[in-house]
Amino acid sequence: MMQKLHHWPLKAVHPWVSKHYHYAVVGASANPEKFGNIIFFDLKNAGFMVTPVNPRLRELGGVKAVSRLQDMMPKPEVAIVVVPPDVGMKVIDDAVEAGVKKLWFQPGAESPELQKKTADAGLDAITDGSCIMVVRRQIER
């Protein structure tokens, strides 16, 4: 039986959006029609420190890409996940191994199973379908 997704109040996710943080965009894409591209450039163009994470990319927007979270130095404060939920399960394992404590699953990347696995791993995770681009704009108003 599917459990209901936990929904975060907007004020609870505000601390997750900071220009002092370094973000990983897991599932970053060179395709401008993909959300991995849109989110990466939205944050980059707004002045955030972002690194694309995708084993098929060498760079994106002049920023060196890494294949997985474990390859990032320094480690990001938040990993933004823009991959299907089945791939996201592996991202949770990578985050644990890399010491990344906060995961933000974008709309379409979230699931109750991911929510349970992140909780079981002791990670903070946004898994309710909240979009970092929407939250960022609400904060900057």
Describe this structure in words.
The chain is 33% helix and 18% strand. It has helices at 10-13, 35-45, 85-98, 112-120, 132-140; strands at residues 22-26, 49-53, 59-60, 63-64, 78-81, 102-105, 124-126. The strands form 2 sheets. It has a 5-stranded parallel sheet with strand order 2-1-5-6-7, sandwiched between helices. The protein has a two-stranded antiparallel sheet with strand order 3-4. β1, α2 (35-45) and β2 (49-53) form a beta-alpha-beta unit. α3 (85-98) packs parallel to α4 (112-120). The model is unreliable at 1-6 (pLDDT under 50).
Helix content range? 25-40%
Radius of gyration based on Cα positions:
14 Å
Fill in the CATH topology: Rossmann fold
Number of helices: 5
Looking at the overall shape, the CATH architecture is 3-Layer(aba) Sandwich
User: How far from one another are the termini?
Assistant: 40 Å
Low-confidence stretches: 1-6
Strand content: 15-25%
Largest sheet descriptor: 5 strands, parallel
> Helix/strand-derived class?
alpha/beta
Number of strands: 7
Mean pLDDT score, rounded? Answer: 90
Order of helices and strands: HEHEEEEHEHEH
